[in-house]
Amino acid sequence: MENIDEKDYGEYPTLLIGSGLYKTELTKKFENRAKWEVPDPRKIMAIIPGTILDVFVKSGQQVKKGETLLILEAMKMQNQIVMPFDGKIKKLHVAPDDIVKKLQLMVEIA
Amino acid sequence: MSLKRNIQDLRQRKIEVQKGGGDKAIEKQLAMGKLTARERILSILDPDSFHEYDMFVEHLARDFDMDKKILHGDGVITGTGTIHGSPVCIYAQDFTVAGGSLGLMHARKITKIMDHALKMRVPLIGINDSGGARIQEGVNSLAGYGEIFFRNTLASGVIPQLSVILGPCAGGAVYSPALTDFVFVVENISKMFITGPSVIKTVLGEEISMEALGGARVHCETAGNAHFYAKTELECFDQIKKLIELIPRNNTDKCVKVEPKEPLKKYKIEKIVPANARLPYDIKDIIRSIADNSEFFEVMELYAPNIVIGFGRMNGRTCGFVANQPKYLAGVLDCDSSDKAARFIRYCDSFNIPIITLEDMPGYLPGVDQEHMGVIRHGAKILYAYSEATVPKITVIIRKAYGGGYIAMNSRHLRADFVFAWPTAEIAVMGPEGAANIVFRKEIEEAADPEAMRKQKIEEYKEKFANPFVAAAQGYIDQVIEPAETRSMLLHALDVSENKSVSMPQKKHGIPPF
Lengths: 110, 514
Hints:
The structure holds two protein chains of two kinds.
Chain A: E1 14-17, E2 20-23, H1 28-31, E3 43-45, E4 50-55, E5 62-63, E6 68-74, E7 77-82, E8 87-92, E9 99-100, E10 105-109
Antiparallel strand pairs in A: 1-2, 3-10, 4-6, 4-9, 5-8, 6-7, 8-10
Chain B: H1 3-18, H2 23-31, H3 37-44, E1 51-53, E2 76-83, E3 86-93, H4 104-120, E4 124-128, H5 139-155, E5 161-165, E6 168-170, H6 175-179, E7 182-186, E8 191-193, H7 197-204, H8 210-214, H9 216-223, E9 228-230, H10 233-246, H11 283-290, E10 297-299, E11 307-314, E12 317-324, H12 335-350, E13 355-361, H13 368-373, H14 375-388, E14 393-402, H15 403-408, E15 418-421, E16 426-428, H16 432-439, H17 441-446, H18 450-465, H19 469-473, E17 479-480, H20 486-496
């Protein structure tokens, strides 16, 4: 055991666990893990991948809570995407017939 | 008709059926780099041991002009044979016959051989190579799948079930392999997914190749659906034969005992582990320095490599090894490694295979992604699996055994039969740095030189707690052993545990944190 030295591991990546720093190889999955971002309620993202069927609002428009902004069709289901609170539409990022990915930005609220 | 002519007629009929989908279809199959269903069965089983049944089964589809079509064997070959002289039931879907599509009679042939395997208590090997449900048979093909899944579940934990994916296995069909114990895949040949690339493209507009979506590598490395990865079909068949040799044929049987062999001299157990607990090494070298003939048959090698699972023999008897791997992610427990280990522990427990746990891990992996993926629930699976297991359970703590991870890795508290520790073991509530920061926070904050004080306190803590003797003083460790004694201690512990018998509370079944 005594002939293994720290200097033999110079090239190794390190990983912090608890308050200890470990020399270790990382995995692809670990390196590609999703980074955490604080969700912004003013950004409406696609909850599921699908197609935009219809958009009912324009940018700059004042919209009340609960009004339907657009229809996102996915898995043969037409999902109504509604305004989460009273506010003004800052920017529309989608138009009818657009295909959106999961968590793609659709509408920004001012 | 004379008997002679009857026999000639029978032989002719068999020859017809053995042509499968005909020369052209077979040529296509070979052009894809695949063997035929029959070649596969014959390559897996002992020479001349295959006995086929239900050759003359005919399909029942009557719509869409299907009644005019002849589908030999209805696209699946079923039978029995032996591997290393041990009986198995086997089926192989024949892609050359209507794309190996599953109709009612095709499914009935499979369920019949499954029932047989369960009755006779012998392993079941299913070779999947099928375009999926036979659409012309409509809801009957769905019924067929359901009957297969039901039997997979009944047989689970009674007989070993091996699924070999040697072609497409898509849609509902994937759930039979998913319910079985071990899934084998081959590079460029295996394709498994719920929805294929074309559906993903039309519905979601995302373009992805079949290999990237559900190829062999993806299932072994990323999704964790498959357990054994091979470059060729022949390599895959060797893996199957090796596995069958190692495991008992059913849940009341014992593993075949073979001639014991000492580990190879080139694995020197005391030269593998760096004394500094922050440095990595390959835990498989430790396993090889302990196991008979230094042979270790690893399961799920590519998935969550921060934990290592697999089979090796000790004194000629198969054991399951579960070992933290400091080489990857410092050997932490996380969602994937917990799932991987927990399922393996349950496999060993179902089939009376003793479990040897080698521990060297700094705890659970911190991170928002882990917490949000449910590391609490996933991590609990290891606790559940170890606690529930009644086979002999032996732990060797090599270096780090911190916090919740210490409890999870087959600790005394989960009813381990024997817990040994090397003198390098550190059994503590957390690593020395973290512990010193909390315990001596005041002293560190108030010191003239907080950094120097922190270092001093860490050293103090290390000196006092980062060793096996605090736990040994409580009887949580049965013996502190020299590394070189590991194999002999394990062999003795296994001998002593040979007739282990414990009873668990009566229940229908538990509710593991799936």
